[in-house]
């Protein structure tokens, strides 16, 4: 069965080199840079995990906004998005589309980037993070970007970053906490009430929300609890059929997208095999293609 991996990552060569010129210490700060299939496109194509899979590419979280001023960040993002679109166009047998980068230290510029993304046939949305510049994605300063995405009918891919105020960040649990907190903050900001057309895809199967559904339903008011289920989520939790079953039970089959987090998780090219095996254990039959293709296609139109 053909599969669309809706949440895979890359650092395109030109963008990565530009960022190295600005911040040469990036490889020392981020251990994931050492993954060859993230930064070397030829190596990625050589070690392709599954010939039945095409990937939707978003940038690994080396964000221009964290290193340069707003004007320069927008220019870096614009060039990176064009480079990403070309990677997709040059390899249609491997990549379905790209997810653009924004510069949240320039809100007007990011709204302009969204407009350009909407005009590019090889880009389908933009990536946002749980925190930008030390602030929650639900901070009112960022709302114009969410509003613009809703206006343009562009989905947003929500990826976690560490809260730098915390001394004990780790990859096992911290990112799932950050995703859950960001979802709660967006819901409490009434973002889906203000922008009913807004579509947000949350990494890692919706993080903690499915497991704590009872707490969500009893602690939040009914409207907010219902809004929690308006997120879309992927299957990138390194396997675990039981957890995927819980996510489907909570969000509904129509809100689940196949995603692997490639090339992260399992070396050298990601956890595609582990995620596919976990999905096979669900015994979904007729609903299987919804996860693998249909839900993504409906979401991005």
From TrEMBL:
Its GO biological process terms? Answer: secondary metabolic process
Entry GO MF terms: carboxy-lyase activity; hydrolase activity
Every copy of the Amidohydrolase-related domain together lies at 66-264
Gene3D superfamilies given for it? Metal-dependent hydrolases (3.20.20.140)
Q: Which GO terms describe its cellular component?
A: cytosol
Keyword terms of this UniProt record: Hydrolase, Lyase
SUPFAM superfamilies under this entry? Answer: Metallo-dependent hydrolases
Q: Which domain of life is it from?
A: Bacteria
Does this UniProt record's set of keywords contain NAD?
no
Q: Please report the name of this protein according to its UniProt entry.
A: Amidohydrolase family protein
Species: Lactobacillus ultunensis DSM 16047
């Amino acid at each position: 069965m053909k599969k669309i991996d809706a949440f895979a990552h890359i650092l395109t060569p030109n963008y990565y080199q530009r960022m190295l010129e600005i911040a040469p210490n990036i490889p020392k700060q981020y251990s994931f840079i050492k993954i060859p299939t993230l930064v070397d496109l030829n190596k990625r194509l050589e070690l392709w995990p599954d010939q039945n899979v095409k990937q939707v590419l978003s940038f690994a979280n080396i964000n221009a906004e964290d290193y340069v001023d707003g004007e320069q960040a927008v220019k870096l993002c614009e060039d990176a998005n064009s480079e990403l679109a070309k990677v997709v166009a040059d390899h249609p047998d491997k990549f379905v589309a790209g997810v653009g980068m924004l510069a949240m230290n320039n809100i007007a510029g990011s709204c302009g980037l969204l407009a350009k993304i909407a005009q590019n046939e090889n880009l389908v949305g933009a990536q946002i993070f749980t925190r930008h510049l030390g602030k929650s994605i639900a901070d009112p300063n960022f709302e114009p970007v969410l509003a613009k995405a809703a206006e343009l009918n562009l989905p947003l891919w929500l990826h976690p970053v560490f809260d730098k105020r915390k001394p004990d960040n780790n990859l096992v649990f911290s990112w799932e906490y950050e995703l859950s907190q960001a979802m709660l903050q967006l819901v409490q900001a009434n973002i889906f009430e203000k922008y009913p057309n807004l579509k947000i895809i949350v990494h890692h199967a919706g993080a903690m929300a499915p497991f704590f559904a009872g707490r969500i339903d009893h602690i939040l008011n009914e409207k907010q609890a219902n809004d929690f289920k308006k997120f879309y989520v992927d299957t990138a939790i390194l396997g675990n059929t039981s957890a995927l079953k819980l996510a489907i039970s909570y969000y509904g089959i129509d809100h689940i997208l196949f995603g692997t987090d490639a090339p992260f998780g399992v070396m050298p090219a990601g956890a595609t095999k582990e995620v596919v095996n976990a999905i096979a254990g669900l015994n979904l039959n007729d609903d299987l293609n919804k996860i693998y293709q249909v839900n993504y296609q409906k979401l991005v139109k």
